Amino acid sequence: MFASRGLLRSSRRLVGGISSATRTYVNLSKPSTSVAVLELDRAPVNSLSKEMADAVSAAIKEAEGDDKVQALVLKSSNPKIFSAGLDITEMNNPEVERLEDFWRSIQDLFLTLYGSRLSTVAAIEGHSPAGGCLLAMSCDYRVMTEGENFKIGLNETKLGIAAPYWLKDLFVKTIGNREAELGLGLGKLYSPSEALSVNLIDEVVKNEDVLEVAMKEAETWAKIPPKGRVASKVMLRSEMMDELREKKELDVGWFRDFIMEEGTQKGIDAYLKSLGGKK
Ligand SMILES: CCCCCCCCCCCC/C=C/CC(=O)SCCNC(=O)CCNC(=O)[C@H](O)C(C)(C)COP(=O)(O)OP(=O)(O)OC[C@H]1O[C@@H](n2cnc3c(N)ncnc32)[C@H](O)[C@@H]1OP(=O)(O)O
Fold first, then answer.
1. Which of 44, 77, 85, 200 can pair with 195 through a Cys bridge, CB separation 3.0 to 4.6 Å?
2. Of 76, 56, 1, which is closest to residue 32 (Cα–Cα)?
3. Is residue 107 within 8 Å of residue 59, measured between CB atoms?
4. Is 227 in the pocket of ligand 1 (CB under 6 A)?
């Protein structure tokens, strides 16, 4: 059903009529004719390394390659963490070439998900900070599990870094300029009810219901005739995507220079050490 890609270790099985493919970092399945499910599966926190970003992009393209598929649910294998965002170790004392390639992979992941012909529904299971929020906001619809300790938002400023301009633009498009000023400036992480109140997400559901609700939503989107739906999506999203495509290498340079600064490195180093308490 889903053709395998050279990049990915892939094994296939048929469970109850559901074709599923298990790969490194992602699992792709097709529980119904028109909806595919892409599960993020990089323990412990689904952080986005270069390889993880490439794997997610490849899986989205693979789902798009099936003409019958019209919608995609993005979920996590971890019920408490959708994604902890970018893999911070990629930005900690990096090799410059690897750092630049890492950023290109993140740009490509955004362009692939945000610009997908598929209707995309994020089943946000638990925490979704920074790059996790980027993944969620790149989808067409967001369902998040309840639990006021779960957080979503852009906390970059608290790490001593700034979100790139296109992530800022996406945030503004999603929640409006004033709330984005507050959210970005304060590095605010929102609980599910707060996120709902500012339209960062569309629904809050019980943990056990999240996949069912996301699937139902995806089925609804999948029934819309694709021609008009995709044309509408292109109209709404192409300006931002075209700008990033044009400025891609400039953006890589900004990212590299910003991350390689001594002060940025000190901040990232301290933040990494504070995480998990083990590094
Ligand atoms: C001209 C102007 C120029 C402007 C500049 C433009 C260019 C600048 C661009 C800069 C862009 C930067 C963009 C950044 C976006 C990001 O995504 S940065 C990442 C932000 N993410 C976070 O802050 C989340 C951090 N993690 C957590 O908060 C928690 O881990 C959690 C709430 C998700 C889960 O908590 P818990 O279950 O308690 O797990 P932990 O014990 O904390 O973690 C377990 C394990 O995972 C490691 N880890 C956690 N997150 C990350 C991560 N994002 N990357 C790498 N590793 C991570 C953590 O260290 C633990 O490891 P050990 O078990 O200790 O080894």
1. 200
2. 1
3. no
4. no
Active site members: 86, 131, 155-156
Looking at this predicted complex, what is its ipTM?
Answer: 0.96
Task: For 80-125, write each residue's pLDDT tens digit.
Answer: 999 999 999 999 999 999 999 999 999 999 999 999 999 999 999 9
Alpha-carbon radius of gyration of the chain: 18
164 lines ligand 1 (CB under 6 A): yes
Beta carbon of 149 within 6 Å of any ligand 1 atom: no
d(CA 277, CA 229): 46
The amino acid sitting at 241 is: M
Q: Which of 103, 92, 33, 87 is CA-nearest to residue 63?
A: 33
Residue closest to 21 by CA, chosen among 34, 4, 35, 6? 4
CB 77 within 8 A of CB 39: yes
Task: Report the C-alpha gap between 136 and 138 in whole angstroms.
Answer: 5
> How big is the chain, counted in residues?
279
CATH code for the part of the protein at 4-277: 3.90.226.10
Ordered alpha helix ranges (H), the chain:
50-64, 96-114, 131-137, 165-175, 177-186, 192-197, 210-222, 226-260, 262-274
User: How does pLDDT run across 235-269, given as a tens digit for each residue?
Assistant: 999 999 999 999 999 999 999 999 999 999 998 99
pTM of structure: 0.93
- Rounded to the nearest angstrom, the distance between the alpha carbon of 236 and the centre of ligand 1 is 30
Atom of ligand 1 nearest to the CA of 158: 23
Q: How far is CA 91 from the centre of its chain?
A: 18
Is residue 276 within 6 Å of ligand 1 at its C-beta?
yes
| SS3 state at 58 | helix
Residue 104 CA to ligand 1 center (angstroms) comes to: 19
